[in-house]
Amino acid sequence: MYRVAEKDRLVVERLPGEAGATVTLGDVLMIVDDGEAPKIGGDVGQAAVFAEILGHKRGKKILVFKKKRRKNYRRTRGHRQALTELRISGISLSGERPAERSDGPGISAGAESAPETVAAAAAAPETAKDEE
């Protein structure tokens, strides 16, 4: 679960899609607008968070060490988690993709005039679509 706002960057577990593609995160749990009461549960209904994939990378290496004492059993393995870096391009209460402004890709039309919206969304994408 992540708390996000428009133009935020975050790193999540690997999501399918190429760099530059847009993903829709549909499992929104709560939405908070400036000056309004938070919308929770049934109030968020079809809300969605739209994010642009900035790239894929791998996390820090961790070592997994197993041992059974007095049995001469030792195993060491390493693991690096596959990660995806996202930039939040819009948050929509209706679940519709926000219109893009002409001054930059991935920014919703009313980002400056509308109050800042914060959403808590699960990282599983609802759909993965290319922005072509």
Protein model, in words:
The protein is an all-beta fold and 132 residues long. The chain has one domain. The protein is 0% helix and 51% strand. The strands form three sheets. A five-stranded antiparallel beta sheet has the order 2-9-6-3-11, with no helix packed on it. It is elongated and about 65 Å long. The model is unreliable at 105-115 (pLDDT under 50).
Give the topology, please.
Blueprint: E1 2-5, E2 9-13, E3 22-25, E4 28-33, E5 39-40, E6 48-58, E7 62-68, E8 73-79, E9 82-92, E10 117-121, E11 125-129
Antiparallel strand pairs: 1-10, 2-9, 3-6, 3-11, 4-5, 4-10, 6-9, 7-8
State Rg.
Answer: 19 Å
| Count of strand segments | 11
Silhouette: elongated
Enumerate the strands of the largest sheet in spatial order, edge to edge or round the barrel.
2-9-6-3-11
Uncertain regions spanning at least 5 consecutive residues: 105-115
Main sheet: strands, sense, barrel: 5 strands, antiparallel
Q: Tell me what portion of residues adopts beta-strand conformation.
A: over 45%
Output the number of helix runs. 0
Order of helices and strands: EEEEEEEEEEE
Look at the structure and give the mean pLDDT.
Answer: 81
Q: Note the gap between the termini.
A: 29 Å
Number of domains: 1
User: Which class of secondary structure composition applies to the elements?
Assistant: mainly beta
